[in-house]
Model the fold of this input.
Amino acid sequence: MRVGVLALQGAFREHLLMLGSLGVDTLKVTRSEHLAGIDALILPGGESTAMVRIAAGTDLFATLRDRMAGGLPVFGTCAGLILLADRLSDDSLGGYDRLGGLDITVARNAYGRQKESFTAPLTVQGLDDPVAGTFIRAPQILDLGPDTEVLARHDDTPVLVRQGAVWGASFHPELGTDGRIHAEFLHHLGVAV
Done:
């Protein structure tokens, strides 16, 4: 299995390193033709506005939407969650094209500014011990559709969700050395790591 990581901007290196530590073959995805060589994709945290602007005028997001409609598993973290949300609480991305795919509404930067970043223990469905969730200018999931499953909460608010093969996290599971969230995503795809 080869997992692509969207490498337009943000924490893509950290995801590549985490996947590498799990023994997973990876590929940086910057153009639509890279999508043909992957079995799953991670959308990293970073600046969602920068990501949509970089992708604008290319066929990357359109091709990715087609691949997702065909069943490509995708995991979006922080800014990646914003790209996957079917709805935003406002038009803070200026009408730029996003991906959708998760039946959720998200508020950007809802956990505060950079200086209000924090790490909190999260109980994740399927894991025995808590995971340290790092929230940096994180989006908040405001509501979710009936087919969206909550895998973890912080203060009773969903922070890790999945809908079929599409996963989303408000936090950054790639920061630190705990690869269990990435491993759970891969296990859900039938990959043993």
